[in-house]
Amino acid sequence: MKISVSVWVERPLATVWQGWNTPASIMGWNAASEDWHTDSSRVDLRVGGRFCHHMAARDGSIGFDFEGTFTSVVPPTGLNADQNTGLSYVMDDGRAVSVQFREEAGGTWVHETFDAESEHSEEMQRAGWQSILDNFKRYMESAP
Predict the structure, then answer these.
(1) Which pLDDT score, from 0 to 100, does residue 29 have?
(2) Where are the domains of the chain?
């Protein structure tokens, strides 16, 4: 089963793309709740490149690596770049994720689709991934 989440970010496409893919930025927004954070991030943004974001409870009680391999990377370049801008990756557990970016007047849509896992309910997974997207929106819109 595939699950999709989306968010509208009031920033230009190029800015949103950088915020999504830059380790320092990722550490500023990649968490589903206030009691979690991403304390390290590595991104090799190319097909076959790997990423690893270490997500941890702020109290230090637990943490895990969110890792995967990029299968498609289409940055915002050229005419009509927003029509195709996006990336795809496969998480280390084999699930696929696709992230599309589409610029419209006044901002950029971020649309993420991912393979569901079997441990948590669809609603719980959607809520967690949406919460991370909402954090991304807040982070990007609060940046100067």
Answers:
(1) 97
(2) 2-142
